[in-house]
Amino acid sequence: MSPAGPGGGVEPFDDLDRLSPAALDGWWAARLAEVLAVAADELPFHRDRFAAAGFDPETFATLADLAAVPLMRKADVLAAQRAAGALGAGIERLGPTPGRIVTMSSGTSGTSFLRWPREWREVQGASSLRAHWWAGLRPGTPFLLVAPGWHVYAAVQSYIVERLGLPGVVVSGTYLPRFSDRIVEAVRRFRPRFLILFLPMVFSLLAEARRQGLGPADVFGSVERLVVTGAPITAGMRDHLRAVTGAAHVIELAGSSENLLAAECGAAPGLHVVPDTCHVEVPAPAGERGPVVHTTMVPWGSMYIRYDGGDIGTLDPSPCPCGLPSPRLKILGRAEHEFVLAGRRWLPYDVQAAIEEEVPELAGATFAITTEGLAAGRLRLLLQAPGDGSTAALEAALARRLRDRFAVEVEVRFPRSLPLLMKGVTPVVSERDIGA
Amino acid sequence: MTPLLTGRPFYDARPDPAGGTAPWTLDDLCDFAAGSGDPYGGRLPGGRSDGDAGRWPPFSLELEAGEPPVWVGLDPAELTAWSAALEAILARWGVSPGDTVGFYEYGSSPLVLLSAGSYVPGLGRGATDRLGADMFCNDGMGNMALRMAEAIRVVRPAALVVRADVAAPFTEALEMSGVSLGDVLRWVAVTVPDGAPFPNDVARWSERWGIPVRRILRGDAAFFLAGDCPACGLFHVDGDAYGLEALPGGETAVTTRFATTTPAVRYSLGPAEPVPAGCPDEPAALRLRWL
Lengths: 436, 291
Description:
Helix content of chain A: 25-40%
CATH architecture of the largest domain in chain B: 3-Layer(aba) Sandwich
Helix content of chain B: 25-40%
Mean pLDDT of chain B: 95
CATH class of the largest domain in chain B: Alpha Beta
Shape of chain A: globular
Structural class of chain A: alpha/beta
Strand content of chain A: 15-25%
Radius of gyration of chain A: 22 Å
Low-confidence stretches of chain B: none
Largest sheet of chain B: 12 strands, mixed
Distance between the termini of chain B: 30 Å
Mean pLDDT of chain A: 92
Structural class of chain B: alpha/beta
Oligomer: heterodimer
């Protein structure tokens, strides 16, 4: 999928990509020791928590020692932020260079404010460039700077454009559906070969194209590599995106404001952890689901260490045919969206995968799961109605086939519309809240 | 016509009887862009580039006020010069090292982009960077108002730039959150995508928020930025960056000295009149009265 290097693997970005998995573990351990030492020396939030947990960074030697480092969660940061106010949460290492940016990480639990000095931008930018390199970004294409100003990616992508000498393009407004007409116009004008979008925006742009009487090729015709981020994609969704945009390569990139970054190579399932951005743990047997815990490798700015940000995923450490040494992460959803049916835990991702496997023509369909249905012990789906009016047949097929998969009664409803948020339709919603 | 403008279709089409270029407005530029199919409205040398990536400027920005869409191009030196105009405004309004400036404005706004070098490839250091200040941007949507109020409560900026069209939801959000701007900020500045906010609106917001409210005058098509002066009430203009010229009919044209990629010569800002220098706070500054 990515431009091939010798032997057909991913073209290495630099020597870090040429390490063996074991050597990368050694590299990670050494870098983590530095990060932990900085945190203990300079950052009161971490110093206090290390002390409370009885963890001494000087004893850290191998990745196995990470287990002694206390986990942190967003609630911890918000509490520290409330206590310290303008001074930050006590996790911020700000360099001597004046002029920092403050970005935001919003969610159901509240907004945290993260601080990033120029020292951070140089290191993080180079690491994020690695992820974009894996995804196939090369000099010679215009680059649409898509991140909103409140998001940390805004600083990273400008660095990438700078380093590769790409023409940088900023569309007015912001990357939300309301501005789809302008984004469509910009993509058609500048004809980028590499385009990164939040997943729901792909569908907003296609809808806008239809509204203007344009076909997908009129918008995405230049795009060889479509990188989608902001939500996990299933195999069926990837095929669907390829089909509806015509992009030869659809690549998933996962990231968070707090330091997580991973990108697909295309040679095997999962997204390679970007090693100089973060170290990732999934405290579960290899390949099984667990909370995604990540630690920054960049000792500047807001430093999150063993951060459980609420994502659920899997981590596959087995060797990858692409040659990259880092394990492959697959984020499957948010812990807050996990639900139980017939005694088993599920994520909306599972429902989406089941829908596209059982009724392939629904790959890429927009849907939501209702809390009212879950409370009644059944799976009640709100599905965006297909344009051909085939709702009755779909309803029957879906209800029958998903009942076998999830071992509960399944209901399918077709509301007039579903709410589109930054990352797409909220996967678990209350029918009362959306008037369904 | 100056050599800089020769071979640029927009200017080639706008000769004036004196051998220069005729004054123009944003509407003129948009019309030219629509008619020619050139997203830059004929201001690049040689006209439209037809998708030739080698001819795109290092940095392209779509003008929010342009309808149909029209783009400007800049190189790093131009970005630096434009950001210096913002720096001068913020400095005159008292932003100093250690302050934080908040923006309730789109990340694609020149005010945000020019503030921090982190956001713009090639800018290096932006206006707040050079002033030793930090900054944040909340995006410019009305439904982000509660988050903006939370940002003020937590980050405690010294100053805030707000889009006029989100002032109402922002005011509601402040009231819902119990955040008093006067307890945190020294000033708020209000901006619109083209021109300056109405004085009556500014007076109303100042009373409602209990804090001085400043005005920003923008002409993004010409990379023009000016801020009002607390002492004289007029917009101060950096004479090194901009030349002003009174036009018949009560308008003022600006020529932007640093603009070379998509030059801005005799751009009509709208209803305004140059006023002789002489403000007690900045005696040498060019001044402009927005009508």
